[in-house]
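Quick review question:
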């Protein structure tokens, strides 16, 4: 018995439907596999023989949203400088408005009436605003309101500091904005630098950095010379970490205590 034509058509349509369902299931499965593959790490994709994911580049908005660094505006710092022995932490006192006959800053025991310093800095320790600072004084000699450094020497090489150099830079009141310093006017020679200070907002310490004639900046140390005849005691910079050959010179630290 031959099947009639309608039956043949019905059987053909059923076969076609099964084929389409099978193909559709295969397509969905492959699509799911593809999506799963996109979620794999590059290491897993390599193991499966899949291509690597393209590199992901953060947009400026994404970078800004994930950034934890904030740019804090600079602020004016007003303080009194307290000197202390670097080896023991024992306080020498606060820098005073008074100066010696050779225009060096002296110090006093109490903070009240001490010399007031002012400068602009950032509360962020890593900010470049905290380097190359100029310290202005508000209650010292108005003709010499900047606390800078002076190297006295006729030859250019005599104005360089370093671990192998004996030269020192005297910390002295200087004029603004274009020194010579007070010491320079008295002696007629010397080299002055004013933007020498670095401030640490976490510890409130101040350090100084003299720039040599060739642009080199070997580390500097602050010393107090208690027995120099010419200075009757004074502060200075040196490139030497130890000055054992000078028993009257002691390495000190400067701390910026907020004014009371």
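Suggested answer, residue by residue:
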């Amino acid at each position: 018995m031959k099947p009639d034509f309608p039956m043949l058509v019905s059987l053909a349509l059923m076969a076609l439907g099964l084929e389409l369902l099978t193909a559709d299931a295969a397509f969905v499965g492959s699509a799911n596999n593809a999506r799963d593959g996109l979620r794999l790490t590059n290491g897993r994709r390599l193991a499966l023989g899949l291509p690597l994911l393209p590199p992901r580049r953060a947009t400026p908005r994404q970078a800004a949203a994930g950034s934890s660094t904030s740019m804090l505006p600079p602020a004016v710092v007003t303080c009194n400088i307290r000197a202390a022995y670097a080896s023991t932490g024992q306080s020498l006192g606060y820098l005073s408005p008074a100066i010696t006959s050779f225009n060096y800053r002296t110090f006093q025991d109490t903070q009240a009436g001490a010399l007031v310093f002012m400068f602009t800095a950032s509360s962020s320790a890593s900010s470049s605003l905290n380097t190359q600072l100029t310290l202005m004084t508000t209650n010292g000699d108005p003709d010499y309101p900047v606390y800078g450094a002076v190297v006295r020497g006729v030859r250019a090489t005599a104005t360089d500091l370093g671990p192998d150099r004996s030269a020192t830079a005297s910390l002295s009141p200087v004029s603004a904005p274009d020194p010579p310093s007070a010491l320079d006017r008295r002696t007629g020679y010397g080299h002055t630098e004013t933007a020498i200070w670095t401030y640490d907002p976490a510890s409130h310490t101040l350090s100084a950095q003299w720039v040599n004639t060739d642009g080199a900046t070997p580390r500097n140390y602050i010393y107090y010379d208690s027995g120099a005849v010419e200075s009757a005691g004074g502060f200075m910079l040196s490139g030497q970490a130890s000055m054992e050959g000078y028993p009257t010179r002691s390495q000190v630290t400067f701390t910026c205590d907020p004014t009371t």
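Why it works: The longest helix spans residues 5-39. The chain has four helices and 13 strands.
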